[in-house]
Design goal:
CATH superfamily of the largest domain: Metal-dependent hydrolases
Strand content: 15-25%
Protein name: Amidohydrolase
Radius of gyration: 23 Å
CATH architecture of the largest domain: Alpha-Beta Barrel
GO molecular function, one term: hydrolase activity, acting on carbon-nitrogen (but not peptide) bonds
Helix content: 25-40%
Mean pLDDT: 94
Pfam families: Amidohydro_3, HUTI_composite_bact
InterPro entries: Amidohydro_3, Metal-dep_hydrolase_composite, Metal_Hydrolase, MQNX/HUTI_composite_N, YtcJ-like
Shape: globular
Oligomer: single chain
Keywords: Hydrolase, Metal-binding, Zinc
Strand order of the largest sheet: 7-14-15-16-17-18-19
């Protein structure tokens, strides 16, 4: 760990996100206190220690404005069923079978990050054959639907004659029997306590168990260059977990969070609102939902998914959504509302515009989480409101050509519209939505620059490509603004927090399709080294 009263940091390249070129910066305590050339700073501060990273490149710390730490901490305690981990249906079922064989009485087998496109389709009967009477539930990588076996369906109270809950659906085989798919509220209400709805027979993990997951996530994310995040769906239990992690020195990531809207009334009674907390753990705003997922193919669309009559799902009713947002807005707090499809975004903008007209809150800029499928009218309306877009950075790289098969070429050229947002003057933040997308910021940068699938090389909406410099700004300055931190994060400038990353190569000059391969050497938070690569 580096400690010194004052330290000058320099490298061959420093991208400070400043108005003028910076070759070095001075850190005192947790903040940058001066910038300039190495010689200027050495002369002005002769007693400061100098740390020269040689041929490396320094950038402000990467900031993921929409990621899920609480959810990841839970997932890391269960089976990793990602395509990278299991590779095939046989591999997935073998993993489930092994876990079921060692499960104790009353225990469930849980797995996450299942990808039906890359790995293959798994249903109720396949899970029955693998696990027998042991309840099994696996969640899709999009986290908006999952698959359960017969034992799990029975424990959850679902049967062939069940009616889906409002905002949810139950998948069925051609003969009408349940196929095990639990879609949106049918899954969320029993698996994710942060939604604040429903009850579940699944034993919740203890705080001690989840703290292990936090440690694992923080280490992985620091290794990828992340210094700040916003946990985009937090319950009171999640916040208690984060507070404990911070108090015990485990939460070295600067962490903001969006409080799940169902818990907002209690927080408001306690006087807790946007900005509550400190530089290490702070409430950014309140989270709501309109529709479903892009990768899960449940978002709300004006035109149906390609080759189908399916327009997706609206998770929260319009009247309830309006009531939720109105209360938060009236209190002067920021909303971050999940809206993927164009129909969902328009519905949300209707509410935002109504409130802006009837109850102005100058300077209060609400967010649209994901904001995936836009058009010129949506861009115009967002710009007029000053709304902030938080789109997926890495989805083009992860999903590749599958996106075009679901949405068609014309729509994919309007998805994750970083180019259009920037051209319209809309603040746009960097976001992975992990575990729904890859968490590595450098892969996010590459995806925004190339718009090519990593596995298939498919060009996905090439009209939305941005420059590497613009992508870096999205993941630093843009994310800071989305979290209300534009005056203290995202730049290496006097008064800003000394959060930065040292890279092997310069992402602004690297070949675009190699940006994700750039290595992270060191990650610093508040002038303190929190991760370094083993030599």
């Amino acid at each position: 760990m580096d400690t010194a009263p004052a330290t000058i940091y320099t490298a061959r390249t420093v991208h400070a996100q400043a108005a003028v070129p910076v070759g070095a910066f001075l850190v005192t305590g947790e903040r940058v206190t001066a910038v300039g050339s190495p010689s200027e700073l050495r002369e002005a501060f002769p007693f400061a220690r100098v740390r020269d990273f040689g041929d490396g490149t320094i950038v402000p710390g990467f900031n993921d404005a929409h990621i899920h730490l609480g959810l990841t901490a839970e997932d890391l305690l269960h089976l990793d069923l990602s395509h990278a981990a299991v590779s095939s249906v046989d591999g997935l079922l073998r993993t489930v079978r092994d876990a079921a064989g060692s499960a104790g009485p009353g225990e469930w087998v849980r797995g996450a990050r299942y990808d039906d496109v890359k790995t293959g389709v798994v249903g109720r009967w396949e899970l029955d054959a693998a696990a027998g009477d042991v309840p099994v539930i696996i969640t899709h990588i999009a986290a908006h639907w999952g698959v359960a076996n017969s034992a799990a369906l029975a424990a959850l109270g679902y049967h062939d004659d069940s009616t889906p809950p409002p905002g949810g659906d139950l998948g069925r085989y051609a003969d009408g029997r349940l196929d095990g798919r639990l879609v949106e509220r049918a899954l969320l209400d029993v698996l994710y306590p942060a939604t604040g709805k429903g009850e579940s027979p699944i034993r919740p993990s203890t705080q001690d168990e989840r703290l292990v997951g936090v440690r694992r996530a923080v280490e992985r994310w620091h290794a990828a260059g992340l210094t700040s995040i916003c946990d985009a769906l937090a319950s009171p239990a999640d916040i208690a977990l984060l507070r404990r992690a911070r108090d015990e020195g485990e939460l070295t990531l600067r962490t903001g969070f969006l409080l799940a809207v169902d818990h907002y009334a209690k927080a408001a009674e306690l006087g807790v609102g946007s900005g509550f907390g400190d530089d290490h753990l702070r409430m950014v705003g309140v989270k709501g939902f309109v529709d479903g997922a892009i990768g899960g193919r449940t978002c709300l669309l004006s035109e149906p998914f390609s080759g189908t009559a399916d327009h997706g799902l609206q998770i929260t009713g319009t009247a309830e959504l309006r009531e939720q947002i109105a209360r938060v807005h009236a209190d002067g707090n920021r909303m971050g509302v999940h809206a993927n499809g164009d129909a969902a975004i328009r519905l949300l903008l209707d509410v935002y515009e109504e409130l802006a007209a009837t109850l102005p809150r100058p300077g209060l800029r609400h967010r649209i989480e994901h904001c995936s499928l836009v058009d010129d009218d949506i861009l115009r309306r967002m710009s007029a409101l000053g709304a902030i877009a938080v789109p997926f950075a890495g989805y083009a790289a992860y999903h590749g050509g599958a996106l075009e098969s679901w949405y068609g070429a014309e729509r994919t050229d309007r998805m994750f519209a970083h180019r259009s947002f920037l051209d319209a003057g809309i603040t746009v933040a960097g976001s992975s939505d992990y575990p729904c997308g890859p968490y590595q910021p450098l892969l996010g940068l590459q995806s925004m620059v190339t718009r090519r699938g990593v596995d298939d090389g498919a060009l996905v909406g090439g009209g939305q490509c941005v420059s590497a410099a613009e992508a870096l700004a999205v993941y630093t300055v843009g994310s800071a603004a989305a979290c209300g931190d534009e005056g203290r994060k995202g730049r290496l400038a006097p008064g800003f927090l000394a959060d930065f990353v040292v890279l092997d190569r310069d992402p602004l000059t690297a070949e675009p399709d190699t940006i994700a391969e750039i290595g992270v050497q060191h990650t610093y938070v508040g002038g303190r080294r929190v991760w370094t690569r083993a030599e």
